[in-house]
Amino acid sequence: xxxxxxxxxxxxxxxxxKNETKSQKELNNENVELDxxxxxxxxWELMSKEVLELPKTTPPxxxxxxxxxxxxTSSISAPIGKSFNGPKLFxxxxxxxxxxxxxxxxxxxxxxxxxxxxxxxxxxxxKNVDAFFVMAAPIFWKSTGIESNQVSLDKLLxxxxxxxxxxxxxxxxxxxxxxxxxxKHTFKYEVSDDIIQDYFINDSLYIKxxxxxxxxxxxxxxxxxxxxxxxxxxxxxxxxxxxQKKYLMPENKILVEMxxxxxxxxxxxxxxxxxxxxxxxxxxYPIDIAIEAARRDSKWWSQDEGxxxxxxFSKMKNPNxxxxxxxxxxxxxxxxxxxxxxxxTVHN
Length: 348
Prior knowledge:
Layout: H1 17-28, H2 35-52, E1 61-65, E2 69-72, E3 82-83, E4 97-100, E5 104-106, E6 112-114, E7 119-123, E8 131-136, H3 138-143, H4 153-166, H5 174-184, H6 195-200, H7 204-221, H8 226-251, H9 254-278, H10 287-295, H11 301-316, H12 332-347
Parallel strand pairs: 1-8
Antiparallel strand pairs: 1-2, 2-4, 3-4, 5-6, 7-8
Helix pairs in contact: 2-4, 4-9, 5-9, 7-8, 7-11, 8-9, 8-12, 9-10, 9-11, 11-12
């Protein structure tokens, strides 16, 4: 669900042409209400302009679905779909189609994915389109019992959308790096943002060191003085580099670079969640509630530490996050190290 690379799932589901025709006639007589998607798009427009300051670009191909229908801008997933006036993105009309999915979703490369709870971005094979994006509608999430103790499910899902949708703008930068990792190296586990966690999830000593490192970054963000901010952040960076040298390099030295890349990719996504949850036009929650909601019990390492790193860097300076979406991105660890070096030079 959280992979930026292609997921390869084969479905042998056979669709009856007779039943499909009857169902489509039924569908054509129904109204389509996608208020939830309009809210998601509005949130992306807000964050894209005010936080990321990204220029407009060609939208990704999009696939949203509930328990019965797929709503998509791709004719591949809805070959007999009915066109409808769906939500606009940045004021531009999109080629929306709707069709009964019959429990399977066809993505741009022609593969069929069983309908399940998922959201992900992946490279597109279509001309002039960098990515495609898939996400289940809110009613699908509600039916599986997903909820948040800190914010409403509606606000949480908007945050999830922002996080995953941001990856559609990273395919030519961070995305290409991940593809290169996968194609040029061999690993014990699947290449994903959880690969470091997969390697060390059963190593209690590693986890102890990792938790100490992460706690230092969150303590740095919550610090009251600039001196304490930089001091605690440097301690955290020192532990991070020590962890990478002791554990990651002996396994595979490329894991060090991968760690930094995935912390950056997941961190900016988590930072968007917090930014939207605290924005007056978004969730309008206090920052501590927003951070707690985004951390979600610290279950995913790259997301949790990535968020801490972005929060720390945003407190150090007024950041320009465009670098995370460029064709030549600089990872968040390197950015923080440079800022610490600059601060030390000025101080001395």
